[in-house]
Amino acid sequence: MPAAGVVMIIAVVLIVVALVYFLVSTILALRQITSGLDQVIASVTEIVEKTAPVNEVVTSINAQLDAGVDLLEGLLVKKAGIVDALGLVDGLYAGAGSVGFRHLPESATLTAPRIGEIYTKGTLTLARLGREAPIALASPAGPALRDAAYASGSARKLYPGGRPDAAERLPRSPAIGGGAPVQYEQREDIGAPRKRLPSGS
Amino acid sequence: MILWWIGDIVLLVVVLPVVAALLYGVLAAARSIVPSVRQITGTAAAASKDLDATALLLTTQDQVTQTVAGVANYGGSLDVILDDA
What we know:
The complex is a heterodimer of chains A (201) and B (85). Chain A has 201 residues and is mainly α. Chain A has a domain at 120-158. Chain A has helices at residues 3-51, 54-80, 82-92, 115-118, 123-129, 154-157. In chain A, α2 (54-80) packs across α3. Chain A is elongated and about 145 Å long. By secondary structure, chain B is an all-alpha fold. Chain B has one domain (2-81). In chain B, 88% of the residues lie in helices and 0% in strands. Chain B is built from two helices and no strands. The longest helix of chain B is centred in the N-terminal third of the chain and has 49 residues, at 2-50. The radius of gyration of chain B is 36 Å and the shape is rod-shaped. The interface between A and B is large, with 51 and 49 residues.
């Protein structure tokens, strides 16, 4: 065999060796990739399965909460009137009054009164409940007029002639500040130098 | 004979380096994907583990339903007890 043939065979063998080495290495790398992607697919499948009911559940929760908010807003507006209800909400969550109620778009245009400066917390509720409330059981002033456990009719004793109907129009909450109907002028002598009285001698 | 030698030279000087370079590029690209896939695997596993708490949403749903039902009951009682504005 001529020398050129030997060199040709060596060159071909070198090429084949290079092909085998690099292709086998590539195959091993691709197998690692396939194994990793299998694990990714398993994890992604778990994610899909775990998140499948989320949309339905969250939608249900939002619907329930919307119903609760509508109920409370409606009750608040019915009992306190839209202006005072707006003031109460604004007193609890500063700035919420400017947003208004969801089902009463006109409430966003109203000016919320400063309920927090008119009623202290819980005063109105306690005033309405009075000594009929079971909470008065622990009152140092004596037992409650109503037996919280059995005397469902004892509250009627407070109104033998029947519970009085509410007034057709309840007085509104007092307005304070610059819009108040009664403005108190500041006395001029406050802060001024004290007047010297004439000496008695 | 001269053509055979020329073929040998071309095979050794041109074909072999080009084949080796191309295969090395493919191998490098394939190997560069492996760490990325491993990172994605870890991230997906961690994300799946983080979502274990989604089952508690069913408890939240029940709690919200009961809470809103309680609020509705109290609201009805308040509607009776308190005078309208």
